[in-house]
User: Which sequence fits this backbone?
């Protein structure tokens, strides 16, 4: 009887041997050159093979914190197979939904250069004042899936595709100028930690849970971003009212080949506005599509949102003098140090025709730049250059995703790339390679490179770097994690500081692991002692010991530009005001108030207990929304014009009482007539500078009344 063949080596290993984290090996903790945390197996550890971190082919990994780069501050090397495999696998974890930024809203528009800067860049769009190009913008949340809500506490993506005559330029950023991590190697870990917990699939679109804060507590480099994330920046009033930032340091290069560093900013013409946390939660229930609807309706009504493009330009000499590293994505450059120079305006003027074909299929690539703009050696940016291109194959199924109309450039493109899945072009002739001499036989020889006008990389090596070394290391200055976090916190108003402290208390109260809460509060002590004390008190825990800082924070001059409230515009433009009325209300008074609001640039929205034609004094009025379905959280201010009979009837309805209670609690202006006083009393509304008679609305209706907040809720 013949012997059975030996088992195939391909089937030797059972799946259990590939499970991560088996056993509890002894770990040695150390800090790297940039103060990044390393948790390595103890020297001489004899643990089972499953204790060793490896790549997918079993190669043991020596450093899971840093990319391999050419010099301490140099570009990331393509030979780093650990980084490439890690991000490659991460990019393809989900299909077809985006892994992050899954829930988005998009619109078309135009960009116009308002100040030519040929001395700084040869980019064609900036050569002449008045030059224009089409744009497509996609706004998004980060953590939630495509079916999540619009208003969680989250960073907002702000991705702009400019279809220039030199090719597509994708400025892919956020509404916050800094990020959680310094090296792209850590991006999969960050996203895994903030996404739904792996064993239970919740919470959705929320950072208030164990794994996120466990990661944050061990990554002090994230603390600056945490200050922003816990501020009102992450609960915006509208997508039309967020700033946009390129996050990274880029370069501008002029015709002479001279280069300078640049940071890109999008400044909303309507100003930066936010909600309160209580509003954000209630809006999620009242209208999960609040931001998407707001953007669509504003454009549909002709109220085109606009942003000014600004640049912060500086040279290597400035960079060398700063107490932070300009290549560190967890740092910003205060506007007081380098003012933002406005060079253009973007206006969104057309909604998409098909959400899937455009908003879902649009593919943004940080690697899409045009001559005159170039990259820096920021290690987070360097990883993104690989990651974004790679992920499109997973999402869109083909390397030909550039042929999808929303992604196609609006200038000619020619190359020798052929075939592939979903090829829609029909190249003719034999020329699919170069060099070739087919033209000598009268055939089409195809396109050729242009040394004169083609993209050329900035060649000067003036980023204080020795490219001869191959290192997994961070520049030493990256280790200052707290100076700018402290700068941000101290630049806020007292009210905004209370919001940050309260947000931290809320988030950490959702963390079930005591040691994680204590560690985060210990990190906060490096930012501000009062902040840490307030958060500890809000959690009812003893103030933990201060976590050790790799570099002691330095006090930087505060920056008013970092505060929303200090920069609030006193304008009605972009605001939406609800006017409550009922049967018998005075139509003339309603029409006058509505006219005043609209003439000041705002939008008036009529709310009543019933929709349809309602008999009022002076005629008939149709409501835009029904009271129970139009809670005051959806509006920037409210007004009420009622009869005594209707006010008395409404005082027995929870929706009406809550309507005023929420508006008061969210520090909004409440304008009312005498009859409404009964409702206000029932709702606990007290007279203050924001609770006024109808004829006073115009003078105070453009702002929130933050002095009221301490009376209506406990703040940390």
Assistant:
């Amino acid at each position: 009887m013949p012997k059975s063949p030996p088992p195939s080596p391909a089937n030797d290993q059972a799946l259990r041997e590939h499970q991560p984290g088996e056993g509890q090996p002894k770990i040695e903790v150390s800090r790297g050159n940039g103060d990044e945390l390393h948790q390595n197996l103890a020297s001489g550890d004899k643990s089972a093979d499953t204790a060793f971190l490896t790549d997918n082919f079993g190669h043991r990994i020596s450093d899971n914190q840093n990319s391999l780069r050419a010099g301490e501050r140099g570009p990331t090397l393509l030979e780093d197979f650990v980084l490439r495999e890690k991000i490659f696998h991460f990019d393809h974890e989900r299909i077809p939904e985006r892994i992050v930024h899954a829930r988005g809203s998009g619109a078309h528009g135009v960009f116009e250069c308002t100040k030519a800067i040929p001395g700084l860049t040869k980019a064609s769009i900036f050569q002449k004042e008045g030059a224009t190009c089409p744009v497509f913008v996609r706004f998004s949340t980060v953590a939630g899936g495509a079916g999540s809500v619009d208003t969680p506490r989250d960073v907002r993506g702000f991705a702009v595709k400019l279809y220039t005559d030199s090719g597509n330029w994708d400025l892919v950023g956020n509404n916050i100028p800094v990020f959680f991590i310094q090296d792209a190697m850590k991006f999969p870990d960050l996203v895994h930690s903030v996404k739904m917990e792996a064993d239970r699939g919740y919470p959705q679109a929320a950072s208030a849970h164990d794994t996120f804060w466990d990661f944050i507590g061990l990554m002090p480099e994230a603390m600056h971003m945490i200050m922003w994330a816990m501020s009102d920046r992450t609960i915006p009033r509208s997508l039309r009212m967020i700033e946009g930032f390129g996050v990274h340091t880029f370069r501008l290069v002029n015709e002479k080949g001279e280069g300078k560093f640049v940071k890109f900013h999008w400044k909303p013409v309507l100003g930066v506005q936010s909600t309160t946390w209580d509003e954000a939660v209630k809006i999620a229930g009242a209208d999960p599509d609040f931001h998407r609807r707001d953007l669509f309706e504003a454009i549909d009504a002709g109220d085109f949102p606009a942003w000014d493009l600004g640049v912060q330009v500086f040279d290597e000499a400035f960079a060398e003098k700063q107490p932070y590293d300009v290549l560190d994505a967890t740092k910003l450059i205060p506007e007081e140090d380098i003012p933002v120079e406005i060079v253009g305006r973007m206006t969104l003027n057309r909604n998409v025709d098909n959400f899937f074909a455009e908003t879902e299929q649009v593919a943004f690539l940080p690697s899409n730049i045009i001559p005159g703009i170039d990259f820096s050696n920021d290690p987070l940016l360097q990883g993104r250059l690989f990651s974004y291109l790679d992920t499109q194959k997973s999402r869109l199924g083909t390397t030909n995703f550039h042929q999808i109309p929303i992604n196609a450039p609006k200038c000619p493109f020619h190359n020798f790339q052929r075939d592939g899945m979903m090829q829609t072009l029909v190249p003719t002739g034999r020329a699919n390679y170069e060099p070739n001499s087919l033209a000598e036989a009268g055939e089409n020889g195809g396109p050729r490179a242009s040394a004169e006008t083609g993209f050329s990389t900035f060649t000067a090596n003036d980023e204080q770097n020795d490219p001869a070394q191959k290192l997994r290391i961070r520049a030493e200055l990256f280790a200052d994690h707290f100076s700018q976090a402290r700068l941000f916190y101290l630049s806020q108003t007292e009210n905004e500081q209370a919001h940050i402290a309260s947000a931290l208390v809320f988030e950490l109260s959702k963390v079930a692991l005591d040691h994680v809460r204590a560690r985060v509060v210990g990190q906060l002590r490096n930012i501000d002692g009062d902040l840490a004390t307030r958060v500890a008190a809000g959690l009812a825990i003893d103030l933990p010991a201060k976590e050790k800082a790799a570099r002691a924070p330095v006090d930087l001059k505060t920056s008013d530009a970092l505060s929303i409230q200090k920069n609030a515009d006193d304008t009605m433009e972009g605001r939406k005001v609800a006017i409550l009325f009922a049967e018998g209300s005075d139509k003339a008074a309603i029409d006058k108030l509505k006219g005043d609001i609209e003439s000041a640039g705002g939008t008036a929205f009529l709310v009543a207990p019933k929709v349809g034609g309602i008999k009022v004094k002076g005629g008939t009025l149709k409501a835009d929304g029904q009271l129970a379905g139009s809670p005051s959280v959806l509006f920037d201010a409210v007004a009420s014009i009622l009869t005594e009979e209707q006010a008395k009837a409404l005082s027995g309805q929870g929706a009406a009482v809550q309507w005023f209670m929420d508006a008061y609690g969210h520090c909004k202006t409440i304008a009312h007539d005498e009859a409404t006083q009964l409702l206000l009393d029932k709702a606990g509304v007290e007279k203050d500078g924001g609770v006024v008679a109808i004829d006073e609305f115009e003078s105070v209706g453009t702002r929130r009344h933050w002095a009221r907040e301490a009376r209506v809720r406990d703040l940390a």
